[in-house]
Write a structure and sequence with these properties.
70% strand; 101 residues; mainly beta; bL21-like_sf; ribonucleoprotein; rRNA binding
């Protein structure tokens, strides 16, 4: 059984025991978070919409961190214009504990 959950404007296909990195959540480490379910796959069938009224996905917050550095480099040729900037996206690491439904 798997579920498709949405958080931070992105969708993730998860099963029990999966470890995922999502956009940073304002939750302390060790707490349990309930995620929004948009689809459920069970026994070869896919359920969406009103069929998901009592489906829940609970995940435990393992840690917070920052991703790999991305270099943003802007330049205009022949004009001596160069700007270099780095960015590290913050994330929250979750372990999917239960998919109830």
């Amino acid at each position: 059984m798997y579920a498709v959950v949405e958080t931070g404007g992105k969708q993730y296909r998860v099963q029990e025991g999966d470890v995922i990195q999502v956009e940073k959540l304002a939750v302390n480490e060790g707490e349990v978070v309930s995620l929004d379910v948009i689809a459920l796959g069970k026994d070869g069938k896919v359920f969406v919409g009103e069929e998901l009224a009592n489906v829940k996905v609970n995940a435990k917050v393992v840690s917070h961190g920052k991703g790999k550095k991305v270099i943003v480099f802007k330049y205009k040729p022949k004009k001596d214009y160069r700007r270099k900037q780095g960015h590290r996206q913050p994330y929250t690491e979750l372990v999917i504990e239960t998919v109830e439904g």
